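Good morning,

Attaching, inline, the C-alpha cells for the sequence recovery test we're adding to the shared suite. The designed sequence is right after.
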C-alpha cells in the first residue's frame, strides 16, 4: 500500500459544497496534479521558456533540451525508446493521427513505404463494443472513407469482452485491430496477449488505447507486442493538453503525417514537401513544451512511487469499493462481479434502480463526493447494458479508504432521498 499522499496534491485540501471536505473520485476522467508537476511546469515558464528547435540562443537551447529530456522520461516510463514517442494533444489526438495517416496512405500518400497501411473495400477494421468514443469514431470514419468494413468484439451482459468470439471477429481480412487496455466503464483489464496473437496470425496492425492503464498499472508498450499505443498526460497526474503516441519506429517512419506545418519538414519547395523522420514528422507548429515537461514530472513521480505499488494500492481499494456497492440494495455494478477474481482497475460504475445517473451525482456532490455521471463517452457499451448512463467512482494514488467509505455511504442514501422503495 502507498502512504497517504494527499499532502502532495494541493487541490485536495479545498472544501466544496457548504464547506464540506472534497472527496475526489473522478480520476478516470482527469487526475489531480502533485506539487512536483505544478512546479515543473511553472519553473519552465519562469526560467527556460523559448521556442523549441527554432533558434540558436540560450533559451531556445534550454527549451529544446527540456522538451527532448521530457520525451525520454515519458519513454522510459512506458518501456520505449525516446525516438518512438510522439507528442500529441492527448490520446484522442494520437488515435486520430494514426487513423488519418492510414487514410492518407490509402489514397497514395507516403509512396511505397506507406503501402502496408493502405486499406479499402474488402478489408476490415476491428474494434470492441467497450471502446471509448475516441477509439471508435476515428475508425468508424476511416471505414466510411475507405470502404473498409468495421467489425467489433462484443461484450457480454455484464459489459466484459467476449473473448470467445476473437477468432471469428478478427478474420483473415482484418487489417487493423484497435482496442482498449482497460475499460473506462467496467474497469476490466483486456487480455492484450490474446488479441495481439490473433492479430499477428492474420497480419493486422494493433492499436492500444492505454489511457486507463498507463496511470494505474506497470505498462511496457514494447513488451505488450502491440504496434501503436496512446495515452494522455492529464490522467497520469500530468497537465491537460498533452499526451503521447508510441509506435514502432519503422511504422512511424512509414506512416504519412496528417497535420502539416513548420518544424516537421526536411525540404519544402513550391511544388512539394518531404518530411523529417519520426517523431518530428508528426510534431509541426508550436509544441506543448511546458505541458510535456509537466507530463515528464508526472511520469517521474509515479516511477518513484513504483507502479507495482500503485497497482497494488488501487487493487486494494477496488476490492473494497466493488464489494461494498454490491451490498447496497437497488445498485447494479457494471463489469466483472466483485468476487470474480478478474483483473480490474480501481473504479466502479453503477446503475441505481429508479434514479437517473445525473440525480445520483447531485446527491453525491451535495456531500462533497465528486464522481462522473453519464455515458463516459461509451454510448454503445451503455446501450448494450440497457442503460443511458451510469455513476462512476474512480481512484488514484491519492485515494484513501475513507474516500471509498464516503462514496459508499452517500450512494446508499440515494434511493431513500428520492423516495424509491427498496
Amino acid at each position: 500500500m502507498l502512504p497517504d499522499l494527499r499532502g502532495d496534491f494541493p487541490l485536495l485540501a479545498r472544501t466544496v459544497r457548504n464547506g464540506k471536505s472534497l472527496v475526489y473520485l473522478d480520476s478516470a476522467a482527469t487526475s489531480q496534479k502533485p506539487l512536483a508537476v505544478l512546479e515543473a511546469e511553472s519553473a519552465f515558464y519562469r526560467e527556460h521558456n523559448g521556442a523549441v528547435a527554432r533558434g540558436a540562443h540560450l533559451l531556445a537551447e534550454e527549451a529544446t533540451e527540456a522538451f527532448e529530456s521530457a520525451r525520454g522520461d515519458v519513454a522510459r516510463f512506458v518501456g520505449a525508446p525516446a525516438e518512438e514517442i510522439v507528442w500529441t494533444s492527448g490520446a484522442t489526438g494520437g488515435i486520430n493521427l494514426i487513423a488519418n495517416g492510414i487514410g492518407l496512405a490509402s489514397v497514395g500518400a507516403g509512396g511505397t513505404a506507406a503501402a502496408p497501411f493502405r486499406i479499402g473495400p474488402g478489408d476490415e477494421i476491428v474494434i470492441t463494443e467497450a471502446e471509448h468514443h475516441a477509439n471508435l469514431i476515428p475508425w468508424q470514419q476511416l471505414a466510411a472513407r475507405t470502404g473498409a468494413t468495421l467489425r467489433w468484439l462484443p461484450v457480454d451482459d455484464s459489459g466484459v469482452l467476449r473473448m470467445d468470439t476473437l477468432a471469428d471477429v478478427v478474420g483473415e481480412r482484418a487489417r487493423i485491430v484497435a482496442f482498449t487496455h482497460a475499460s473506462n466503464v467496467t474497469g476490466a483489464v483486456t487480455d492484450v496477449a490474446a488479441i495481439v496473437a490473433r492479430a499477428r496470425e492474420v497480419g493486422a496492425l494493433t492499436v492500444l488505447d492505454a489511457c486507463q492503464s498507463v496511470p494505474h498499472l506497470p505498462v511496457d508498450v514494447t513488451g505488450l507486442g502491440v504496434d501503436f499505443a496512446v495515452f494522455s498526460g492529464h490522467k497520469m497526474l500530468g497537465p491537460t493538453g498533452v499526451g503521447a503516441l508510441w509506435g514502432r519506429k519503422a511504422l512511424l517512419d512509414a506512416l504519412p503525417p496528417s497535420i502539416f506545418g513548420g518544424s516537421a519538414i526536411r525540404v519544402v519547395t513550391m511544388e512539394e514537401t518531404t518530411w523529417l523522420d519520426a517523431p518530428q514528422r508528426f510534431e509541426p507548429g508550436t509544441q506543448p513544451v511546458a505541458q510535456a515537461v509537466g507530463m515528464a514530472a508526472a511520469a517521474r513521480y509515479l516511477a518513484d512511487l513504483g507502479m507495482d505499488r500503485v497497482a497494488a494500492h488501487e487493487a486494494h481499494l477496488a476490492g473494497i469499493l466493488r464489494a461494498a456497492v454490491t451490498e447496497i440494495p437497488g445498485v447494479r455494478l457494471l463489469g466483472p462481479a466483485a468476487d470474480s477474481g478478474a483483473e480490474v482497475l480501481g473504479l466502479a460504475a453503477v446503475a441505481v434502480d429508479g434514479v437517473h445517473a445525473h440525480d445520483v451525482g447531485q446527491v453525491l456532490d451535495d456531500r462533497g463526493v465528486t464522481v462522473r455521471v453519464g455515458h463516459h463517452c461509451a454510448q454503445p457499451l451503455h446501450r448494450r447494458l440497457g442503460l443511458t448512463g451510469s455513476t462512476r467512482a474512480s481512484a488514484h494514488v491519492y485515494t484513501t479508504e475513507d474516500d471509498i467509505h464516503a462514496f459508499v455511504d452517500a450512494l446508499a442514501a440515494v434511493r431513500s432521498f428520492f423516495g424509491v422503495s427498496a
